[in-house]
Fold each of these.
Amino acid sequence: AVVSTQSTGPVEAFVYSGLSSVIAELISYPIDTCKIRLQVQGQITDETLTAIKYKGAYHTFRSVIFEEGFTSLFNGFRFAALRQATYGTLKFGIFFTGKKIWNKRGGSDKNLPFLVSLGVTA
């Protein structure tokens, strides 16, 4: 494995943070879509959701793909991606930039109170 000794700057930290957040959302979004469909079925308040259509996670996933198409698992993804692009960029970018500044000033990565306070701040 090739290990880079070059340090990333603050701009790269924010870009990589946002990109990784959007990729993580892309991977988890179909699972979340199936979870929500399982949760809302059988509701009394909405007549279109009163029937129990899905029997479990696998059945939901399979039914959605065969009845509505694979891309329907990603309905609404652009809004989730936009949220992650902004929130994830700031959250991880602030955390890792703050940690880098702390390390340059002689701080330790093992300082739990500092890392917790930095995480709360981010």
Amino acid sequence: MKQEKSPLLSDDAQPGLEDSINDAAVPVPIRQTRPYLAAAVILITTFLNYACIFLPSAFYPQQAALKKGSKAGTEVGLVISSIQISTLVGSGLVGIHMKTVGAKFLIISGAFLVGGCTVIFGFLGKIEDWRSFFGLSMAIRLIAGFGEAAFDTTTAALMLTMFPSHTATAWSLIELCIGLGFILGTPIGGALFDAGGFWCPFVVTGGMVLLFIPLLLFVLPDIQSHFQHQEPQTQLSMWQLARMLPVVMVCLTFFLVYAIWGFARSQYPFYLDQTFHWSATHIGLIFLGTGVIYVVIAPGVGLLVDATRPRLVMILGLLMEGCGMILIGPISLFSILSPQPWLQYVGMALFSIGLCMAVIPAAPDIISCATSRGYEGGMSLNGLVSGLLSIFTSLGGIGGAVFGGVLTDSFNFLLAGTVFFFVLCAQLMVMVAVTVAELCQADIVVLPDVKH
């Protein structure tokens, strides 16, 4: 099928050409270097946004306990995870209504909410009343989550649209900046807290996000013009997209890998502490190493996905993640192996590589699935894809932490890991079957027509 070049990238249009197209209906093309400048500003702002999210992890639990006068683990967990709840709700709404509301408005307002809420959060340290402190912490993080959803969903769609021939590389760069925010956000927060107190990390980092808003206004392309000149028949609803069997498989995989990560992030530290009596610093280094590996290999995985079939890379990623899960612990299925520190290092390294290889191919795979069924690629489709994946990311993170916690409390970490391992194996077999059927052009992957 012939693919039309995205108007956002078109540099072939020449003013003054006489043809059947009305010049007033053609979007103004972006200069050759403009997409790269826009991408650079978007990626830096993405890093700052995620640094803002992870800032409180280093010192907020201790400060909350001091305000309450006793342990505040439950309340801290609610505050830290509340941003995922609002992101879950906001991502779907943004993906569906991006065209109506305006993509550029969503990006700017999202950055403003994240930066502004982060700055405001810094002044909560002056509140002595525990209930007011906790309630305002929850409210501000929830609002920031909606801003994060607006910014992330729209900028991801824009990045995919600006670089239609390198969607996996564009997605991998986004993941790289998210990973950097995850890795550096907590140590930056701790360092600034030690230097200036509670207000310092929030005001400094949130202020930097706000400073990037004028740059975003300058470099972002005329996105709405692109929307206005899309063909009506290319429009696709999120429900239509989600009904495609390969898309269902990819989204379930996305949900599962983030559920396993949520389980590991919430329960694995306790296992390491109880089994090996590692210090908090040692345990933190395990997760830091996992994030570093993810960030380092992400661009290479993006290039690999662009050069081959995204689904094959995803399957390989699930295999590697499964191998890593076997060694972490190790899981009770392989009780012949005794718990050893080196198994934890190797297992988490394989897990990180597998996670990266399973996540990055998701967006290109869904886009390929939609375009192969006759839908044109573009900002609208990319917005739906970004919103859909954001929903399953949040669902996986929340569901994995909760379900993993219940399993661990009912049994133990190793048995809980075994359950997740078998679910991963089942998902892997289903994905292999669907992929083989697609390659053989089997009828089972062709659902009833979803284009209305």
Amino acid sequence: EQIVIPPNLADILKAFTKEVIRQNPDNVIDFSSRYFARLAQSDQPEGLHSANLIALRGKLALADLQQTGEVSYDVLSALCDEVGMGQDDVERMLKLGDWQG
């Protein structure tokens, strides 16, 4: 049987794992419950969670082969899609960053 793995699952689990290591909770189950409840109730748009942004940062670094710190809008949009971020998230990031295109 084939299973479909959400594109951002690894990034969500990576961000969660880092937070567990940072916090070193006595009760990991309780911590996990609270962590994911906060994540689910966050007023942050779905695609702009830190796990997605961490994954995007890594993909942007790989896409910037000349290390100029720049990528095209099309590349940014495609990379955002790969990490589970939608077109609305791309536009929101550009507004937050005061991008001049």
Amino acid sequence: GLPIAKEIVEMLFNDGLVKVLFATEAFAMGVNMPTKTAVFCGLKKSDGKDFRYLLSSEYTQMSGRAGRRGLDAKGNVIIFLTDIEQLPHIEDLNKMMNKSGENLESKFKLTYPIILTLLNNENFKIMDLIKKSFSENSRHSSMNWFKEKVKQLKRHMKDNPINCKYPNTETPPIEDFFNASNKLRREQTNFLNEMDIITRLKFPKLVILLGKNNVLDLGLCLRYAYYKDSRNPIDLRVFVMSSSRDRGKISIEFESASQNVTAGNDRQTGTFWRFLDVRPAEVFGFLDTKVDRLRVKTVTLALNQEKEAAPELISALQSHRERFLADPKKFEAQLIALDNDRDYYYNTELAIMEERNKVIESLCRGCDLQAQHTEKHLKVLDMRRDLEEVDKRMKSENQAILDELAARTNVLKSFKYIDDEEVPLLKAKIARETGSLLISELIVENLLDNLTVAEIAALFSMFVCQFNSRDENFREEEFSD
């Protein structure tokens, strides 16, 4: 028979008596038969649904046959394609040859017949099967790594404390400051992205900006732009500048890197300036303060020729900014309430005001350790997320199987396959024999009594037919009819 013939060919090949062997993937992948040269006549294979390129692990395993230990200094791998159209793109070829092997994943599934069979077995329980599954074995083999990772993360958190100079606080003030700033950003995004709100502003307006590491600075907002189909429909064009206390550079940076930037410096004053687009999340609030020495002509010029308008904008913004940096709290009373009518957006603006107050009143505002503690707090947040992820991975696979078991057990109880004590009933025997709850229900509910033999055969064929929807003669509309 065929097995004997295959064994003879393998023996002849192993003894070097077969010079050229045309083999299937099964031979190339599963048998230790080294050769001097491996030739691929194609790089695609069927996965049951479509044709795909070989996975990296498949290509490595098959091409690894080339090179006989003790006989060849190196092996040869030839990709022999007769049609130029079969040649893969360089990215696909690189992925196939150089990508690391795919991770093994458990395919273990708890089916109803398995559960019913094991419930009927006194010597081998369901939990015994789960413990022997690949996923559970993999989880246990990784447990030491998980535990070591948890220890390492906790040690890092302990070794990097935030030593605040205000020791009477239960938690470091930077944590509350950071949380308030983040909530303010979310609320401002929802609020200012509404056209009904942004159109209530008359530009130009002085604006307090909330930059990276929650740095506050004063700028001048010149206009807004609206992008209808964007996730972030509102952009605000602002002018920011440096001063003598900034040591020649602009002190505020933003999380969202603007691509549309005009920058320069005024040689007479040594002031650096920048026009850029910011998002609503980077707006702390608008001020109801008149900008001195700012002519309409300058504003119009700034909308079209920003560089030419910069010197006068510096002159107009400078005094306001110096006063703001000296005492930001004084400017709180000048923040504009955009929803004075107390309509749909009133509660949102109240939430914004509450978070603004937390930021302004925070002990971290103006503290010389703010930037350092913010950086440490971000690292702590990363470590907390890593801890959560490790904890989740330690529990997830086993928990998923247990959840699936509980859900399927409840189904079996509700359809009377097992009783409340999980003892199999009569219907369970039928389901075990047929391998399907659906077939069992058809039989037990006598739904086949009025069907002919041919109709029953047609009905049951759907449980065994391997239908190929890619058949060129298949038309879905006819099938659905």
